[in-house]
Design a protein that fits this description.
The complex is a heterodimer.
Chain A lengths: L1 H21 L20 H38 L19 H30 L14 E6 L2 E6 L20 E4 L1 E5 L4 E7 L4 E5 L4 E5 L5 E5 L6 E6 L12 E6 L1 H16 L14
Helix pairs in contact in A: 1-2, 2-3
Chain B lengths: L4 H9 L4 H6 L1 H4 L8 H31 L8 H5 L8 H37 L7 H9 L1 H11 L28 H30 L12 H32 L24 H18 L2 H15 L6 H15 L14 H29 L8 H24 L1 H7 L3 H31 L5 H27 L19 H31 L62
Helix pairs in contact in B: 4-6, 4-7, 4-19, 6-9, 6-10, 6-17, 7-9, 8-9, 9-10, 10-11, 10-12, 10-13, 12-15, 12-17, 13-14, 14-15, 15-17, 15-18, 17-18, 18-19
Classes of the chains: A alpha+beta, B mainly alpha.
Chain lengths: 287, 596
């Protein structure tokens, strides 16, 4: 029975490792998304994934090493207890209070590894959040303002001027602004910025395929930048408990080429300015 | 001085049933306002075991919804009595809020500090009772107003629904959630009562451990359980006031119109715009300033107990006793400067993210040192694979997973993605259930003979362990994968989002494992209750352990020891070749050969 328990404790880490190994093939891994592979759909997201895999590698080695060590001490300990401690010729229990050298070793090595992990992460974090490190492209201003509320995302875009170019997004709503709900259109292939706000409680702006997450905090306007590499639709959802309907704050991010986005904005402007009263000149349009 | 008198009186007083009555001495006082630390310990233990069932049932509600969304829940559905047993989204938020609340405030913290802290501290340091017995009793009885408040919160609109973290604005404005009315106020009062209870215990433990150790019980001869309890008590004393203050601020905000956390101009659920200049992040800072150290409050005593059980069952001294103590101290010290890692995506200053990342990474170090020392303790030992040992090994094995997954979320960039996903849920269940609760299961089996003079049934104990371990890993390991797949926490219906649809079968598998695990707890409870009356009788030191508690009668009488014990050595002198009688244990109270 002792051996059974030793094997039992070794069995489950093996299952765990196998499970993680087959997970990507079973689609139990990063959301496959538009790429179909599970790779992040943004450059910064790819670097986050790289960091994830680096940590996964370090922790896997540690995990396997620790479990093997555990297995070794369990099996040898079980063997030792086959005979009673005072039996003739019994294998002696190792009487020790520890080892200074080992303690030093297994303090310094993990400390160095952990410090390395921490320092190695700094750059990506700084690029993601520290304003001075934001890419040049996003400094000209946000493309939209996303305001979370129970339980939807309200989005405000700046209106277009006479030439069809977007105006600058003002902190306060303007008469020319354009609005959508749960439908965020941004330019693909270049870094873009949004302002994130909340109208009521905390929410969190979560784009899983792009590896973007930022809480929307009432009273704060938080700039968030990211870059969608591919022109397509992405999931947008809430990641901070915001009430009973938390799960249904479902929206989409449509990343598209700048010219497509401008066309879409024009249509939005036309729809929004349409007062429903037929113009004399537009009579033929109403047919 | 006749310290033996109480024991003698007790057995005389009960006449010819003395033998049986003695064993039930603690149980018989369990309903009374006793100031005996052992009775209070047993009171805490029984209360928390009952609460474990409540918290588990709430968790099964959560799991049911995730596996079979919007389908009527059999049996428990009747209790929910909403839409024919269907769990509504409102109710779902209340279920996970109260699951966490019950498990943290009414199970894990009180079972460690309340039950085992109370029962073991005086016994293990050779004191006759706690320094402040009355305060000690009050600490138990203050649990009941808390339980009442939490229970009553269900009657006001269905229970608090802002998560156990209760972030304002959601928890601060009545209109924000169905449970944010009176229920949230009751919840805050419940937390305050639990806090008062913990604080009374904490002051008491510190005083007792500092002042009332038996002669010869130097600090570095204390069992690691006592170190764990001592450090926990210090953590509580310094962290709890912050939570209590934050709780009162939120209470005042809700009831008296103060504005600490609510900014002005919010329109919540079509109510009038809010007035004020509060800052919601303030709550998160205050809350986590307590609640991160609280994670260690929920872990350190279990670490200590597992060390004691493991040394005994491996018949070997603790490997690196002092590094173990220093590690626990380091965890406690660092534990105060890592709270910001719960807030990486909260919008706080990004520079803070970097500092909290470094401190959080560093707290993994003492945890690693402890893990290596536990394996070192078993290394070269003569292992006994009984229920106590199995649960202790499980503690180490699971703690490794919980510790390693913590590194992912300590790394800020990676945390951006996994924050508030099921990866986090997996992580803290591996620490709090995988580590702490397995430690507690082991401790129940280990110290049960001291409480009731009988042993718990080994076969049932092993079955309980086997099923719980399988059920636990089946439930919680896949959560890592769900997290990587981007499934957010606290979603009543994740499958609304197309990229999560395919995760339903995995969630169903996990729920089945959770149900298995839930039913396995009946074995523990049955074993516990039946063994009190019908367990195999045993002597005062059934495990051949060294600690002072094993030199007292089982159960120890009022006053614990027949005479003041004198301590000659540390608690881990197992298999010492110098032991004069050739035994593989050497009790702390046994005089060395020279003095005999």
């Amino acid at each position: 029975m002792k051996r059974f328990w030793c094997a039992f404790f070794m069995f489950w880490p093996i299952v765990a490792v196998i499970l993680c190994w087959i997970a990507p093939g079973q689609n139990w891994w990063f959301p496959r998304g538009p790429s179909g592979t599970g790779a992040a759909m943004s450059p910064l997201g790819e670097r986050i994934d790289d960091l994830f895999y680096m940590i996964l590698m370090i922790t896997s080695v540690t995990f396997v090493g620790t479990q093997v060590a555990l297995g070794y001490v369990l099996f040898t300990g079980a063997r030792r207890s086959d005979t009673s401690h005072d039996a003739e010729g019994a294998e002696k229990t190792w009487f020790t209070h520890g080892s200074h050298n080992l303690e030093v070793m297994w303090s310094i090595v993990p400390a160095a590894v952990l410090l390395f992990i921490a320092l190695y992460q700094m750059e990506v974090w700084a690029e993601y959040r520290v304003k001075d490190k934001f890419p040049e492209e996003v400094r000209k201003g946000p493309q939209a303002e996303v305001t979370a509320r129970q339980f939807e995302w309200r989005i405000r875009y700046p209106g277009l001027d006479e030439n069809g170019n977007p105006l600058e997004l003002m902190p306060d709503p303007q008469p020319t602004d354009l609005y959508t709900v749960n439908d965020l259109h941004l330019t693909s292939g270049e870094p873009v910025m949004i302002w994130l706000r909340s109208e009521d409680v905390q929410h969190s702006f979560f784009l899983p395929e792009l590896r973007v997450k930022q809480d929307a905090v009432p009273g704060l306007v938080i700039p968030v930048w990211f870059e969608a590499t591919k022109s397509t639709e992405y999931s947008l959802l809430c990641a901070e408990l915001c009430g009973w309907g938390h799960y249904k704050m479902k929206a989409r991010l449509v990343a598209e080429r700048e010219e497509d986005r401008l066309v879409w904005l024009q249509e939005l402007q036309a729809a929004q300015n349409d007062d429903g009263v037929p113009d004399a000149g537009d009579a033929s349009d109403d047919e | 001085m006749s310290t033996a008198t109480p024991a003698a009186e007790a057995s005389h007083g009960h006449g010819h049933h003395a033998h049986v009555d003695d064993k039930l001495a603690l149980l018989k006082k369990v309903h009374t306002f006793s100031t005996d630390h052992k009775v209070i310990g047993v009171q805490f233990l029984i209360t928390t075991l009952l609460m474990l069932l409540v918290g588990g049932a709430l968790a099964l509600g959560v799991r049911w919804q995730l596996a079979f969304p919007w389908e009527s829940m059999p049996f428990f559905g009747e209790l929910f009595a909403q839409q024919g047993g269907q769990i509504s989204p409102e109710y779902y938020t209340m279920l996970f809020t109260m699951h966490a609340t019950v498990m943290i405030f009414l199970v894990i913290i009180p079972v460690l500090a309340g039950a085992f802290g109370n029962f073991l501290i005086p016994l293990m340091i050779g004191a006759d009772d706690m320094a402040f017995p009355l305060l000690n009793a009050l600490s138990y009885w203050f649990m009941w107003p808390a339980i009442a408040c939490f229970g009553m919160s269900f009657m006001f609109g269905g229970g608090p629904a802002a998560g156990w973290t209760s972030y304002p604005v959601l928890s601060a404005i009545q209109q924000a959630a169905p449970g944010s009315g009176m229920a949230q106020t009751m919840w805050l009062m419940g937390v305050t009562f639990v806090g008062v209870s913990s604080m009374m215990g904490s002051v008491n433990y510190m005083t007792t451990i500092i002042n009332m150790r038996a002669p010869g019980m130097t600090l570095f001869r204390m069992p690691l359980t006592i170190w764990g309890m001592f450090i926990t008590a210090i953590l509580q004393a310094f962290a709890l006031p912050v939570l209590t203050a934050a709780g009162f601020m939120l209470l005042f905000e809700r009831t008296l119109g103060f504005t600490f956390f609510i900014p002005g101009g919010l329109v919540v659920n079509n109510a009038d715009p809010t007035v004020g200049g509060g800052q919601p992040l303030l709550w998160q800072h205050l809350f986590w300033f307590y609640s991160h150290p609280a994670v260690y409050i929920m872990l350190l005593p279990a670490m200590g107990m597992v060390s004691d059980m493991m040394a005994c069952m491996a018949r070997k001294p603790i490997f690196g006793y002092k590094p173990m103590v220093y590690s626990m101290s380091a965890i406690a010290g660092l534990g105060f400067i890592v709270w910001g890692h719960h807030m990486f995506t909260s919008g706080m200053n990004p520079a803070l993210g970097m500092t909290f990342m470094v401190s959080t990474m560093m707290i993994a170090l003492p945890s690693a040192v402890k893990t290596f020392n536990w394996i070192g303790t078993m290394w070269g030992g003569r292992l006994e694979f009984n229920t106590v040992m199995l649960n202790s090994i499980a503690f180490v094995s699971m703690f490794v997973v919980g510790g390693l997954s913590g590194i992912f979320m300590a790394a800020v960039p990676v945390d951006i993605y996994i924050h508030d996903t099921y990866f986090i849920v997996a992580h803290f269940h591996y620490v709090l259930f995988g580590a702490t609760l397995f430690g507690v299961f082991g401790a129940i089996h280990f110290w049960f003979p001291k409480m009731f003079g009988r042993r718990m049934n080994e076969t049932v104990g092993k079955w309980h362990f086997f099923l719980t371990f399988i059920g636990f890993n089946g439930t919680f390991f896949p959560m890592h994968l769900l997290g990587v797949a981007g499934m957010p926490r606290r979603y009543a219906d994740p499958y609304l989002h197309p990229y999560l649809e395919h995760l339903l079968p995995m969630n169903q598998f996990m729920t089945i494992c959770a149900i298995l695990m839930g039913f396995a707890q009946i074995l523990l409870l049955g074993n516990f209750l039946i063994s009190i009356f019908a367990g195999k009788e045993c002597d005062d030191n059934p495990w051949h352990a060294n600690g002072l508690e094993w030199s007292a009668p089982s159960p120890p009488p009022h006053g614990n020891f027949p005479s003041v014990p004198i301590v000659y050595r540390g608690p881990y002198e197992y298999s010492d070749p110098a032991q004069p009688e050739g035994k593989d244990f050497w009790m702390q109270t046994e005089p060395p050969p020279t003095s005999s």
